[in-house]
Every structure is written in structure tokens, then in C-alpha cells.
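User: My collaborator and I are trying to settle a disagreement about how two of our proteins should look. Neither of us wants to argue from intuition anymore, so we agreed to look at predicted structures for both before our next call. Could you fold the first one, then the second, and keep them clearly separated?

Assistant: That sounds like a sensible way to settle it. I'll keep them separate. The first protein:
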Amino acid sequence: MLQSLDQPKQKMLERAYVMITCESGCEQRVAEQLKSLDGIKEIASTIGAYDIVAKIEVPTTEALRELIARGIRKISRVHATTTIVCEPYF
């Protein structure tokens, strides 16, 4: 989608989905801790290879890295994360 140069530019956010694998039986506990982190917009439980999916929106790539490395991955009982960085089509 093209944006007219006359229109003000919208502030772009870094958006990502983080798939989280955690210790069995600790999903609710991990989800509660995720709620306290700035930048987490949605949390959902899943069935399959991952236990939880978290939607993230932050202002910069560095903020995204910080949130994942020093926030999500530091939560007790989180074993692994997989991140998909997204760019909206429109």
C-alpha cells in the first residue's frame, strides 16, 4: 500500500509472535507472568508443539530483543521460545 507524502506517517511498531514451550502443568503460571510484561498484547494457549503464543508490539527491534531475552526467557519454567517477526500488509 502506498502512502501519500502529504499524509502524516503512522508510527510503526515491531510486531512479533512468540511461541513458548514450558514445563508441563505450568502454563497458567507462565501466562500470569507474561501478563506483567510491557509489550505483551495477547496471550493464548495452544495444542501442539508449543504451549503458549504471545503477541508482542513494541517500538523498536531492540525493545523486542530485550523483552524476549530478559523478560520471556527469564520466566521460571519457560524451556524454549520461537519468534516470528511480522510486518503487516496493510
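The second protein, kept apart from the first:
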Amino acid sequence: MIRPAALTDVPAMVILLNRIIAKGGTTAHEVPYTEDKFAQTYLTDDSAIACFLAEADDTRLLGFQVLGYWPGLPQGWVDIGTFVAEHARGTGTGAALFAATKALTTVRGDVAINATIRADNALGLAYYDKCGFRDYAADPDYRLSDGRQVGRISKRFDLV
């Protein structure tokens, strides 16, 4: 089931995101989130547009997708982030989340969706390719806080 996230969902979403951060390799986030910081960033800040979550029939959180404004993007563009639990990868969770996000952006009249992914995140790059995103920019020199150079690729999904 896909539905809009609520503040009551924050604890479960923080656990999922912090597990992804701790494992490393699939997100540029390096610092674990607190519940307050997560709620502000993805649900209540002026830059937050929407957050959809995917639940199993037993209400277990499978993943979530966030949509927001990001500094430096062209007028009419929005930014996306997708986070899926390891056990839910390859089950259609990401596709279902993107269907909800794409429907919202179409109704809103957005021009394009931006996704910026670490260049070493093969799963993330493949996911956005499968959703129909295409590369439009690269930053091969992007580094993590520990100095590792991982690069990043920006992809766009045109809505008009």
C-alpha cells in the first residue's frame, strides 16, 4: 500500500533511513537522522513537498520516497529521494512509490524531477534508469566527508 507519510510514521522512517546510512554505499547521507531533523527536512520544512511511504499488508514499512525543492534547480523542477528497505528491494516497492510521486508532480504541473545519485550506487542508478530518468549532469569529484571520492550523477525525468 502506498500512502502519504504522517508525523506518526517518522520513527519507522528514521529507523529505515538510519539503517541505510549505517550500511553505506547507497546514499550520500552520512549522518544519522534524529526524528526531529527527519520530520523537519522531509515533512514540515517549506522545501518539503511530499513524502509517500510503502507498507506491507501487516503495516511494515517497506520504503519511502520524498519530493522537495532543492537550491539550484531550474524553475519548475523538484528533487526526489528514494529509500527502500533491503528486504523489499526488487519487489516493485520503488516503482509503486514513483507512480504516486509522478502522479502528484503531474497534477502540480512540475516540469521535471531531479535525482542526484552517488556514482558508485549501482542499485540507485539502475532504479532511476528503470523509472525513465536520464543523465544530464555529473560531478566526478564529489567526495564523502571521509575524503573518499565517489562522484555523483544527476538524472532528470521530464514531465512535460
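Some points you might bring to the call about the second protein. The first strand starts at residue 2 and ends at 4. Residues 93-108 form the longest helix (16 residues).
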